[in-house]
Design a protein that fits this description.
The complex is a heterodimer of chains A (about 325) and B (about 550). By secondary structure, chain A is mainly α. Helix content of chain A is about 75%, strand content about 0%. Classes of the chains: A mainly alpha (about 325), B alpha+beta (about 550).
């Protein structure tokens, strides 16, 4: 097991190194540079000022050299300075990461719980009324664009009903736990609903397949109760493919969070990475994207470890 | 009993309704990259700083230059500005008793320090136009400083925000490498330090990328502001921003390029005509079409004029912009004192446009598109930046109007990054490029119209004269205007520049902008400026 983990960590480091090079190069290929973005629509900036600014930001150097400088500094724990936030990258990343983690974990747990409940309920009687309702809900969740869902949530629960605040993470002057939770309800629900559809379809499919397996039939023949069959004999086996899908989608929650964070004005990682790319903030975009890569790699490692726990026959 | 309860409830509701608003929450669509006043010229930054950090002078809503930190605007007439050798000396007197938010005195030393940083090319200042012309600053006394200019400069009487020397000077002195100061500036490291601000409010809390909270600056010596607290909430998606306004999560959304778009506000006003107060103010945003003068088709002045005559700008303004924006005849806004109406104008006249094209040798082909003697189609690539819905709509209307006179336009839009960072910057656009910019009061057209500002490899693609416009008279007028210190004597030079622009049409002028403000009906005292100085510079007069 230790050897497996070490091997995977080694692989992850190589992937991160390759990704850092690819991401840096891709951002470098984008038209314009940070100074173009900075002085866009400012007809007063003289060529001399522009040239000086380029030199100050190190943009007069070839991109490979800039990447090398970044890499050497990053290995020493210095991820550079964010141009769009005027702060060191790690100082920008910290609060944004915390905010996104809260949003991601809360929505992930909610969507997993909902998906298991709905998926199992649907799988018990495929084609039945519950299955049809769950399928409708799942397809709606998959089909509805997140930004539209977020806007509808705001219009219904904030504009019409005034139940929840439309944006932000806390009320100025309040900042209590309840206030904080009230601000989290709509973004978490939006993100969770968007993911629940996918997860539910996978849980349903895996459960239907497992419930038809020989060992389940045997358990039924032995007189085991339906609850025990579902929870002990079927669900654990059905979880193996589902865990893979969920682990892979964990990293993509960052991109889902982008829309949710933008619509609900939550200053998190998704929006930060998006703004950094648009603002040509190399250091911040690169570090943020590498972090998203790392989360995906780690969640896959966790999924691999979970296989061993779910099915002892799987050797790591 | 029921009547008593009802009365009590009515009284309670009445009490709630009458409760004063002590916090004003403002929704905006962007967040500033820094609060350092001289780095990154960002509309949202200056909107926020208007509450907290006052410039020395500002144009008021009547476009009159007024002192905010000084006692009198220096001029030749009052002796505040005098010629010396080939340059000039300008004396500034600061109001007595001014302090920064930590109680430290504000005055001549801060001006001298700001000039020192502004003159240093490694400081990262984006607008060095004023500072690089200054050779020396003499601090006469704590309230008086003399700026010595190397040459006469028409904007000698404009001074922006100062840096607090008592906080920033040690940081600047410690900077070793280019860009160090920018990274270490207290504005970036500790933006809630009260000593950075001199306005009626100070930044009290920063939630990076999300919101800023401003509270009263107790060291402010001007009128005490009405609101205890101002909250600026950044909501990037304008549909969500509008929903926040409707839900009451934000009280107001300002215009000034930081809030809702004009078309959004027009729709909102139709939906909720009485719930909010609406204000529309023409501003200095200028939407135009740059023409690639290297393109042989567009090099012919008759084609350029025909193109403008074939656009029905009045209908576009009335139908798409609620009639709220002025049509442009040149690059100078009708609200500007240097504006002249005495220029060639181009009324919508498709028949005259067709005749002009015929005179230029363009005859209708079988498919209705004009062709010249060589059989070349009158086909022009037309670009704008993607994502600006209103502009893309305008583009389609213009395409169909040009089609009626036999001009084919091929729409080739690009993301803003590509259009501004690559296509315009390297002048690789083939035909027409529509975009807008926000200029300032009596802003010199040097960067956009001077032949020295054509982007080339030699000047490292600097300058924004994208059209390749070269006119010796225009160059001479710009030089003369920038050196002329008497406003009245600048007027004829401005008029001449506008006439050349309208005659030569290197650019098709379309419209000026209009900012759309949405306020709660209880908010009073906000006066839109219609220029680059934000309304927040007079926030101490806002009240309920």
């Amino acid at each position: 097991m230790t050897r497996f983990i070490l091997r995977r960590v080694g692989q992850a480091l190589i992937v991160l190194l390759v990704m850092s090079f690819v991401i840096y190069s891709l951002i470098g290929l984008m038209p314009g540079d940070p100074i173009d973005v900075m002085i866009a629509s400012n007809p007063g900036a003289t060529p001399e000022v522009v040239a000086h600014l380029r030199a100050i930001y190190g943009l007069d150097q070839p991109i490979m050299l800039r990447y090398w400088y970044w890499l050497v500094a990053a290995l020493q724990g210095d991820f550079g300075f964010s141009r769009t936030h005027s702060q060191p990258v790690l100082e920008v990343l910290g609060p944004a990461l915390l905010q996104t983690c809260k949003l991601m974990f809360a929505s992930f747990i909610l969507s997993v719980l909902l998906a298991f409940a709905l998926g199992v309920a649907a799988a018990l009687k495929p084609g039945g009324i519950i299955d049809n309702i769950v399928s409708l809900f799942a397809f709606a969740g998959i089909s509805v664009p997140v930004f539209w869902l977020a806007l509808v949530m705001i219009l219904v629960f904030a504009v019409q009903l005034h139940w929840f605040p439309a944006s932000g993470i806390s009320t100025v002057g309040d900042g209590g736990f309840n206030d904080y939770l009230r601000h989290l309800v709509m973004p978490v629900t939006t993100l969770a609903l968007a993911n629940t559809g996918h997860f539910t379809r996978f849980v349903r499919a895996a459960m239907i397949e497992t419930l038809r397996m020989d060992h389940v039939r045997t358990a039924r023949a032995k007189g085991a109760g339906e609850g025990r069959i579902v929870m002990i004999h079927a669900l654990r086996n059905a979880m193996i493919p589902v865990v893979t899908v969920m682990a892979l989608s964990f990293g993509s929650l960052f991109s889902g969070a982008l829309i949710t964070e933008t619509m609900f004005a939550q200053p998190g990682m998704g929006k930060m990475i998006y703004d950094a790319i648009l603002g040509n903030d190399f250091n911040l975009a690169l570090t943020g994207l590498l972090f998203a890569t790392l989360v995906t790699l780690l969640s896959n490692l966790v999924a691999d470890l979970a296989y061993g726990w779910l099915d002892p026959r799987i050797s790591l | 009993m029921i009547r008593a309860v009802a009365l009590w409830l009515a009284l309670l509701c009445g009490a709630v309704a009458a409760q004063p608003h002590k916090t004003l929450t403002i929704g905006v669509s962007s967040y500033p990259s820094t609060l350092q006043p001289a780095i990154d010229p960002d509309a949202i930054k200056f909107y926020i700083l208007g509450f907290a950090d006052r410039p020395v002078v500002a144009f008021d809503p009547d476009r009159k230059l007024v002192c905010l930190l000084c006692t009198e605007i220096p001029s030749i007439a009052n002796g505040g500005a005098v010629m010396e050798g080939t340059g000039m000396a300008v004396t500034w007197h600061f109001k007595p008793g001014l302090t920064w938010g930590d109680g430290a005195p504000l005055g001549a030393a801060d001006l001298a320090f700001t000039a020192r940083v502004g003159r240093d090319p490694n400081s990262g200042f984006t607008n060095t136009q004023t500072w690089t012309r200054i050779s020396r600053v003499d601090v006469v006394d704590p309230q008086t400083a003399v700026l010595h200019y190397t040459e006469p400069f028409y904007q000698f009487d404009e001074l922006a925000e100062l840096l607090p020397a008592h906080l920033e000077q040690p940081v600047f002195d410690a900077a070793r490498n280019p860009g160090d100061y920018m990274q270490r500036s207290i504005y970036n490291r500790e933006p809630t330090n009260p000593g950075l601000y001199n306005g009626p409010y100070r930044i009290a809390n920063v939630q990076q990328g999300g919101q800023l909270v401003l509270e009263r600056n107790e060291h402010w010596s001007g009128d005490r502001p009405y609101f205890d607290r101002i909250v600026i909430k950044a909501i990037a998606n304008t549909a969500a921003l509008q929903a926040n306004l409707q839900s009451g999560d934000v009280d107001m959304v300002p215009g000034e390029g930081v809030g809702l778009t004009l078309d959004q506000v027009l729709v909102l006003q139709k939906q909720e005509p009485t719930r909010f107060a609406y204000a529309y103010k023409p501003n200095l945003a200028y939407t135009h079409i740059d023409l690639q003068l290297d393109n042989p088709i567009l090099a012919d002045i008759r084609v350029r004029r025909a193109l403008l005559m074939a656009i029905d700008r009045r209908s576009m303004v009335d139908r798409l912009m609620g009639g709220r924006v002025p049509i442009a005849n040149s690059f100078v806004n009708p609200q500007e004192p240097q504006y002249t109406g005495d220029v060639r104008t181009y009324q919508y006249d498709p028949a005259a446009a067709r005749a002009l094209l015929a005179e230029a040798g363009w005859k209708p082909g079988d498919d209705g598109v004009l062709r010249n003697a060589a059989g070349q189609r009158l086909s022009i690539v037309f670009s704008t930046s993607t994502g600006v819905r209103a502009r893309e709509l305008l583009q389609q209307v213009m395409q169909s109007q040009w089609r009626t006179i036999g001009v084919e336009t091929i729409i080739k839009n690009e993301p803003p990054r590509t259009l501004f960072g690559e296509t315009l910057k390297h002048r690789s656009f083939q035909g027409m490029a529509m975009f807008g910019w926000l200029s300032s009061v009596e802003s010199s057209p040097r960067q956009t119209l001077s032949s020295g500002q054509i982007p080339t490899a030699a000047n490292n693609w600097g300058g924004t004269n994208y059209t390749d416009f070269r006119n010796p008279k225009m160059d001479a007028d710009i030089d003369a205007m920038e050196r002329e210190l008497e406003p009245a004597k600048r007027i004829p030079l401005w008029a001449d520049m506008q006439r050349i622009y309208a005659d030569e049409l290197p650019v098709l002028p379309l419209f000026f902008g209009s900012e759309a403000h949405v306020w709660p009906t209880w908010l009073k005292g906000v006066v839109p400026t219609g220029h680059n100085q934000p309304t927040t510079l007079w926030a101490e007069h806002w009240h309920e």
